[in-house]
Design a protein that fits this description.
Layout: H1 10-27, H2 29-38, E1 46-47, H3 48-57, H4 66-76, E2 83-84, H5 86-96, H6 99-116, H7 137-158, H8 187-190, H9 198-219, H10 221-242, H11 252-268, H12 270-273, H13 280-285, H14 287-295, H15 298-322, H16 331-348, H17 356-382
Antiparallel strand pairs: 1-2
Helix pairs in contact: 3-6, 4-5, 7-9, 9-10, 9-11, 10-11, 10-16, 10-17, 11-15, 11-16, 16-17
């Protein structure tokens, strides 16, 4: 007995293709876009040879013949440039494949394309931790600060002044920020090389390495250097408009810029930092890796940073209020550095998957930072409450 099968209407076919295009846009378009963001060959698609090899490795030849696969891929490469763009891929999936082939292709194509995308460009934030190139800036700036501290400690010792845990800084140095020598603009940056006592530099170096190295391993030297140095400048500018007659030394502005940058990275990579966090399957397969994902997840990172910032700021405020003048802490330099790290981290640091709102937010935060710097410069130029300018030599 023959079974009657009604013919598919054009409306049904059009609706099916529309649904398929929507699914392709959702599932595959982001992968193509991510691939194009790092490719080295200068084209705008996936290399045809790579796609063919990956399709073979994923077992597509178990479903269609080798000749048919070559025919489809060759036809898909409409401009014959050996690259498959997303539009060419979409055309192949919606027009060149039969309905039965389409289901077979979809079962392997996502894994195929994902295998072409390097691990560090996927949604896993931890995959972006690599030491190529090595983290050189934080190590370089830390060594420079230690060398300067040792040189001046030896110079002070020759003059009969011992460097202790909380004292011993060469205030005559041209590196120190002094409110009566603000015309020497380099002091707004170089004060970071000077420290008052070995506990001051020890704590700054520990925090700088602890928070700076992981940041540089992911975001690389030039980004971290920009945030750190601009944070140092923001720290001295904030100090200059609040403590009009107090000198400033120490790398705390840079250290707090690193902390603020961590917060910025958490904000823009929240989803990626929580990739497979609390994933039961990964915890069972690799307990160590599963636990590391939990400990390095966005909420845990944020909690650690907030605990440190709150406790250290409270200690700085206490010392600011109770300590003798020679041991007072420049609290606003901490705030300035933290603010700079947060504002600049959003547009400067790497974002695993950048959304439009994050780009727009980055422009806003950059404008706020530049406005802050401009206002501080204007204040320094017009305010007459600073100590009398010292025009003498060093």
């Amino acid at each position: 007995m023959a079974i009657y099968r009604p013919a598919r209407s054009r409306e049904d076919t059009a609706m099916e293709l529309s649904t398929l295009r929507s699914q392709l846009d959702q599932s595959f378009k982001p992968i193509f876009e991510k691939f194009q963001s790092f490719q080295q060959h200068g084209g705008k698609g996936i290399k045809l040879g790579e796609l063919r090899r990956e399709l073979e490795d994923e077992g597509l030849l178990e479903h269609i013949s080798h000749a048919r696969m070559d025919q489809l891929l060759t036809k898909a490469d409409q401009d014959a440039n050996q690259l498959i763009t997303y539009r060419e891929f979409e055309h192949m999936m919606t027009r060149d494949l039969t309905q039965s082939e389409r289901s077979r292709f979809q079962s392997v194509i996502r894994a195929t394309i994902m295998d072409i995308v390097p691990l560090r460009y996927r949604d896993d934030f931890l995959a972006n931790y690599n030491c190529c190139p090595p983290p050189i800036f934080i190590l370089f700036i830390s060594i420079a600060e230690i060398v300067v501290f040792v040189v001046y400690a030896m110079e002070l010792k020759e003059d009969g002044i011992e460097t202790t845990a909380t004292s011993g800084v060469a205030m005559y140095s041209p590196l120190v920020y002094k409110p009566n020598r603000r015309y020497e603009a380099w002091r707004f940056l170089t004060y970071m090389l000077m420290h008052q006592g070995y506990m001051h530099i020890l704590l700054n170096m520990i925090m700088q390495l602890l928070f700076g190295l992981p940041l540089e391993i992911v975001h690389k030297a030039w980004r971290v250097a920009l945030v750190y140095l601009l944070g140092v400048i923001a720290g001295s500018l904030a100090h200059s408009i609040s403590d009009h007659s107090v000198a400033l030394v120490g790398a705390s502005g840079g250290v707090y810029a690193l902390l603020g940058a961590h917060v910025a990275a958490i904000v823009t990579n929240w989803h990626e930092m929580n990739y497979k966090c609390m994933d039961q399957e990964e915890l069972e397969d690799n307990t160590c890796k599963g636990m590391s994902r939990i400990l390095l997840s966005a909420p845990v990172r944020l909690m650690v940073i907030l605990v440190f910032v709150v406790s250290d700021t409270a200690n700085a405020v206490y010392r600011r209020v109770t300590a003798p003048d020679e041991f007072k802490v420049g609290v606003t330099a901490h705030y300035g550095g933290l603010m700079a790290g947060l504002l600049l981290g959003i547009p400067i640091l790497m974002n695993v998957r950048r959304h439009e709102w994050e780009t727009n937010l980055g422009w806003v935060t950059l404008a706020i930072y530049l406005a802050f710097v401009a206002l501080c410069c204007i204040f320094n130029a017009v305010y007459d409450g600073y100590p009398n300018t010292d025009w003498s030599g060093w």
